[in-house]
Design brief:
- There is one protein chain.
- By secondary structure, this protein is mainly α.
- Among the domains are: about 200 residues; about 110 residues; about 120 residues, no CATH class; about 190 residues, no CATH class; about 170 residues, no CATH class.
- The chain contains 59 helices and four strands.
- The strands form two sheets. It has a two-stranded antiparallel ribbon. A two-stranded antiparallel ribbon has the order 3-4.
- It is elongated, with a radius of gyration of 46 Å.
- One of its GO terms (cellular component) is chromatin.
């Protein structure tokens, strides 16, 4: 190498191009090119004398070398040319045509790099390295055929990457080369751009299959990362063109071809969105401009385009690791996407929900922002959107849901959706809430925030039982057994969860739970009978009995599943193993672990078609079979009150320091009532503790008593003498409640001489009754029970008892109230626990109990009516005077308000108790029944609530006369929404139940006419009517009456009985008021009002009001027939509604009937009512009086202290 003026000069002087005169053999040519390559490669780029290169630069570009047939010649020539470009950089010593030929040579060399063992692989690597180092590759971007060359370059290198033999060490060099071309090229061929971008899509498919990264994907990543701005512009252009085509394709859908084109273009659009998603994962900067196009799609007219855009952004948000924060980088797009819950299309809204949930799962920090949108879709007008939202929320992990997503509004909304009329939404919501409760149970009731979010779930789920819907009840069962109280083999954990759940139930929730466990014995008995019949030889009577049992069982099962067919097929299978498993589950003596194992085996087998299929017969689906049998087994098995639980429950009930002590005692008490059999193994523990004077509570005594009612022989223990002595001690010195059950337990014992002597000694010990003693109330409770167990011992003391209780307890006060008590005291209350320690109030309550128990004890005696007369008068006086029967003359007036409330409630409840006995029911005349309205409309919330609960219970169980049904209609003015709605639900449920049992049942229709009679005697109605002088006065009278009439019609009227109701109302004008004949005109006024209202209702509902074909007599205790035909005609044609009030009545009646519920009124199957649609009319505002809190009138008391009780 020669050096000239500090520059290096090329030493090589050999000829490279053959001529005719001087041919150069190929071997020699290769040798010369190799020498030249070696020398050129050793020269420094900035120290070369370019003049010394003049000769060889022209020779190297000669086509004889560029297109030489020998690979070696081409390889070394390419290397030499690469160095020439290096020396002349940044310019090239060749024209465009020569450069084009040169790069074609380079490309031909690159194509051969898929073979590392090739003879010239080293030279090809050198070529690639030089081009990358000197950036000489960018020269192709200035050539006329630049697009073709660029396209070829990318095709070659991406092809090499796909070959599988290209060296990974060379990939960085390729990336540099390709990146430089992208950066400098004025235009990138569409094919090349697609080649680069498609690697994102292809790589996704490869990764999904679990393979390694796609070949060539690294090239794409590097090219995009190195040229983010350029690629972003290119991408935006690419998206714009494609979206434009898609939009243009949608402009005209008149022809089938256009529709097909639009579909194809939409498919292409989805590919672009998939590309955008992949770009966000790896090179989010590329979407800086293109995202605006996707944002525009969010507002596109085409629903499918909006769905695609909505879904794509959701998926982008669901990317867990991205260099950019989408909400910050694309704020406008994100904000627009957040508005999609309000999109006009329910499909778009549903897709937004799916996307939002994916985003929450991937990035929980987004949950708070997305919650408001999810709240909107939870209450969406479209049921599909609501269903999608609930189902998608189930896919959020419980931890994320509770800690990030849930808030008070969402949870309140979900609590409403479990009452949703749409079965799938309701079921999905129950599943969601149950799953959340189950997953977070360990945190609930320990963490205040979690408790607020989920602590209410069991209570709300159980209260759904009040809806009285078969499908809802089945959903409640599955949620309760599988999620709220799931199967758990550890006794301590299982019982702890059971008690925890029960402890946090409201009264309604607890009543529902009790109803569920109370159902078990009946279901178990039916299942046992069914399987026993299945084992019998086929016969007509056997088949008939089986059909009846199946009908009874499936009557409470959902109609959406063919449970009857499933049960019939189960019996036809005649699989003894299945029968045995079911029997074991429903056997009250089966332990918990056995039940669990039996259910697991049974459910597993029934879920497979091969195990339930009968050859030659159609088969029910495994789902239907499993659903039916699972529900049957859940309902007939003793799971919650299993004998395996009793020991742990009993232990906790004895541990006063245990946090679940109270709940354990409640459960033990309920067990003793519902399934006392499970106490058999543990009852000795309770009786022994009683015998030894151990820590025994009221609920323990009640448990022993309930068990003893069913198994009296078990109660007689080895320590019987100690047992009797202990009970005697409790009857004298225990609390009043303990004394009550102690005497009841003594009453269960065999009437041995020792037992009778002990009870006689007990009477001697408490006698005479002394009001000053601390144990007076215990003694009073004992006396009350002794009337029922040992009446003979008190026969000679009844006069003394009645005199004492009347003069010292009921007609005087040891605690004096304040005549000017604050208005808040009106609703004051003494709860059950406080009552036990409030001696003076409890004394009055016990005094009433003594009198009532005395009546019960002498019901069959000849003098029962004589004994009952003053007691009934006492109860009537207490109710009628609001609980105040103490005379001011005694000096102990007034009775405290709280006492009065308690006392009138007790009087009402005891009156209902006496009504259970036919002899006393006969003595309870209608005027006394009318008095009970005062309790239903009492000024005290507790009195109304508790009395109504007791009334409904007695009516539901059929313990009292049907004439008491009319009372429930007087909740029309009830100020508490919960009590009013609960009672209305009960009425509808009972009406439906009665009609189902007998489609011709007229109980509520007859109760309706009783209510009308009672309304005409209502004190407030009479006062309003007697004082009415002006039109507005009469409006108040009409409005008052229509409130009750409207409510009753709302609850029981339907298209099938409206004519009967009208007939009954009109029949009232053919009778006199038997109770108060002089006030018959009031009854006629109510009759006219009712007829007018029924006509308005029928017109509003478009019901036919035909003449009732039958003839019914009205209740003889309320109505007296009129025999005078002239008078009957006069009454029939006369309107008792003042003429001046007719216009007001028209407005009131129309307003009332318009607002009668759209709630379905129960009708029998063959009385199906068609759906009526009416155009709503403008509501006319009417002046109505405020809701009443009380109908109690403080009348003067007739104090006759000489009366004997």
């Amino acid at each position: 190498m020669a050096v000239s003026k500090g520059l290096q000069t090329l030493k090589f002087k050999g000829a490279l191009v053959s001529t005719i005169d001087k041919p150069v053999a190929t071997k020699e040519l290769i040798s010369r090119l190799q020498d030249l390559h070696n020398e050129l490669s050793s020269l420094d780029q900035d120290k070369v004398d370019l003049k010394s290169l003049e000769g060889i630069k022209d020779s190297l570009i000669n086509k004889k070398l560029l297109k030489h047939s020998n690979s070696g010649v081409q390889a070394f020539c390419a290397c030499c040319l690469a160095d020439v470009l290096r020396f002349y950089a940044p310019d090239a010593p060749y024209n465009a045509s020569q450069l084009s030929d040169m790069f074609k040579l380079f490309f031909s060399q690159f194509k051969q790099m898929d073979n590392p063992d090739g003879p010239f692989y080293h030279q090809q690597t050198y070529l690639l390295t030089r081009l990358a180092e000197t950036r000489s590759i960018v020269l192709i971007t200035d050539l006329p055929n630049a697009e073709t060359l660029v396209e070829q370059l990318f095709d070659i290198f991406y092809g090499l990457a796909s070959s599988g033999t290209f060296s990974s060490k060379l990939e960085p060099l390729v990336c540099e080369v390709l990146s430089e071309v992208i950066a400098e090229a004025s235009k990138i061929p569409t094919k090349t751009l697609k080649l680069v971008l498609n690697k994102f899509l292809a790589n996704t498919m490869v990764m999904k299959k679990g393979h390694t990264i796609l070949p060539g994907f690294k090239f794409t990543l590097e090219v995009c990362n190195a040229n983010a701005d350029r690629m972003s512009r290119l991408l935006t252009q690419f998206f714009s063109e494609t979206i434009y085509e898609a939009t243009k394709g949608k402009e005209n859908e008149d022809s089938e071809d256009d529709k097909q084109d639009a579909s194809a273009l939409l498919t292409q659009l989805k590919k672009l969105h998939t590309l955008a998603l992949e770009l966000w994962k790896y090179v989010p900067e590329l979407l800086s401009s293109a995202m605006g196009l996707i944002e525009n799609e969010l507002d596109a007219e085409d629903e499918k385009i909006r769905i695609t855009a909505t879904e794509t952004i959701g998926k982008i948000l669901a990317v867990k690791q991205s260099r950019l924060n989408f909400a910050s980088a694309h704020t406008d797009t994100y904000t627009n996407w957040l508005k999609k819950p309000l999109d006009k299309s329910p499909h778009v809204r549903s897709f937004w929900v799916r996307s939002a949930v994916q985003a929450v799962n991937a990035n929980p920090d987004l949950a708070a922002e997305l919650a408001s949108g999810l709240i909107k879709t939870l209450v969406d007008s479209d049921e599909r959107t609501r269903l999608t939202t609930v189902r998608e929320l189930s896919n959020v992990s419980p931890g994320v849901f509770v800690s990030k997503l849930a808030n008070k509004t969402i949870m309140n909304t979900l609590s409403q959706l479990i009452r949703e009329k749409h079965a799938e939404i309701r079921s999905s919501c129950l599943q969601l809430l149950g799953s959340l409760y189950n997953a977070q149970f360990d945190e609930i009731y320990k963490n205040d925030a979690v408790t607020e979010l989920l602590g209410w779930v069991p209570d709300d789920v159980l209260k759904l039982v009040y809806i009285n819907d078969k499908t809802v009840n089945a959903q409640v069962d599955h949620t309760l057994f599988e999620l709220l109280l799931p199967f758990e083999l550890d006794d301590a954990r299982r019982v702890d969860r059971l008690l925890t759940v029960i402890e946090h139930l409201s009264e309604k929730g607890r009543n529902s739970f009790h109803a569920i466990v109370k159902r078990q014995p009946q279901m178990a008995k039916a299942v046992s009978q069914l399987l026993a019949l299945a084992d019998m030889k086929p016969a007509d009577d056997v088949s008939s009995k089986i059909d009846k049992l199946i009908s009874w069982l499936v009557a409470s099962f959902p109609e959406s599943v063919d449970c009857r067919a499933a049960l019939k097929q189960l019996l036809k299978l005649n699989n003894k193993r299945y029968f045995k498993l079911i029997m074991l589950c429903s056997d009250i003596e089966t332990d918990y672990k056995t039940i669990t194992n039996c259910m697991k085996e049974l459910f597993g087998k029934l879920n497979e078609l091969k195990n339930i299929k009968i050859e030659g017969e159609p088969s029910v689906a495994p789902h239907d079979m499993l659903f039916t049998v699972k529900l049957l087994v859940y309902r007939s098995s003793v799971i919650f009150y299993n004998q395996s639980n009793v020991g742990e429950i009993l232990r906790i009930s004895k541990d006063l320091a245990h946090s679940h002590n109270s709940a354990a005692q409640d459960v033990l008490e309920n067990i003793s009532t519902v399934v006392p059999e499970v106490l058999r193994a543990n009852i000795s523990t309770l009786t022994q503790e009683t015998s030894l004077g151990g820590p025994i509570g009221v609920k323990d005594l009640k448990a022993i008593f309930q068990f003893g009612k069913k198994f009296p022989e078990v109660i007689v223990t080895e320590n019987s003498d100690d047992y009797v002595a202990s009970l005697k001690r409790l009857a004298v010195r225990g609390s009043p409640a303990e004394a009550k059950y102690a005497v009841r337990l003594l009453g269960q014992l065999p009437r041995t001489a020792a037992r009778n002597a002990a009870v006689a000694a007990l009477v001697d010990e408490i006698w005479p009754l002394d009001t000053s003693k601390d144990n007076f109330n215990a003694c009073l409770a004992t006396v009350a029970e002794l009337f029922l167990t040992d009446l003979a011992l008190l026969d000679d003391k009844t006069k003394e008892i009645s005199s004492l209780l009347a003069s010292q307890i009921l007609l005087r006060n040891n605690t004096i109230g304040d005549e000017d008590e604050d208005e808040d005291e009106v609703n004051g209350w003494i709860d059950r626990d406080e009552l036990e320690t409030n001696k003076n109030c409890l004394s009055k309550i016990l005094a009433v109990r003594v009198f009532v128990n005395w009546l019960i004890a002498v019901e069959t005696a000849e003098n029962a009516a004589q004994v009952a007369e003053p007691v009934l008068k006492l109860l009537t006086s207490i109710i009628g005077n609001g609980g105040e029967i103490v005379s001011p003359k005694t000096g102990t007036y007034p009775t405290p308000k709280k006492y009065q409330s308690r006392l009138r409630l007790e009087a009402g409840i005891k009156l209902l108790k006496l009504a259970r006995y036919s002899r006393y029911n006969f003595l309870i005349h209608q005027d006394l029944v009318n008095k009970l309205v005062l309790l239903i409309q009492d000024e005290n919330d507790h009195v109304r609530t508790l009395f109504m609960a007791k009334l409904k219970k007695n009516l539901t169980l059929g313990l009292i006369s049907e004439r008491f049904y009319a009372l429930v209609f007087f909740i029309a003015h009830e100020p508490q929404d919960a009590l009013r709605e609960d009672t209305k639900t009960w009425v509808r449920s009972m009406h439906k139940r009665k009609l189902k049992a007998n489609k011709n049942e007229l109980l509520f229709e007859k109760s309706f006419v009783r209510m009308l009679s009672m309304l005409s005697h209502h004190q407030e109605f009479l006062e309003l009517l007697n004082s009415a002088k002006t039109t507005s006065d009469y409006a108040a009278v009409l409005n008052f009456a229509l409130t009750y009439i409207g409510l009753a019609l709302d609850l029981i009227a339907n298209m099938n009985n409206v004519s009967l109701l009208y007939y009954l109302a009109s029949r009232m004008k053919q009778y006199r008021d038997r109770l108060t004949p002089d006030l018959s005109s009031n009854m006629y006024l109510v009759s006219d009002l009712t007829q007018y209202t029924i006509k308005a209702l029928a017109k509003h509902k478009n019901w036919s009001l035909a003449t009732w074909p039958g003839k019914l007599s009205l209740p003889g205790d309320l109505f007296e027939s009129i025999g005078d035909s002239a008078l009957l005609h006069e009454l029939a044609v006369k309107s008792f509604i003042p003429e001046s009030a007719v216009k007001t009545l028209d407005d009131l009646a129309r307003d009332r009937t318009r607002h009668l519920a759209g709630t379905a009124v129960p009708v029998t199957t063959d009385r199906k009512r068609p759906h009526i649609s009416e155009k709503p009319r403008t509501k006319k505002k009417l002046a109505v009086e405020p809701q009443r809190r009380s109908a109690i009138q403080r009348a003067a008391v007739n104090y006759n202290e000489d009366d004997e009780f």
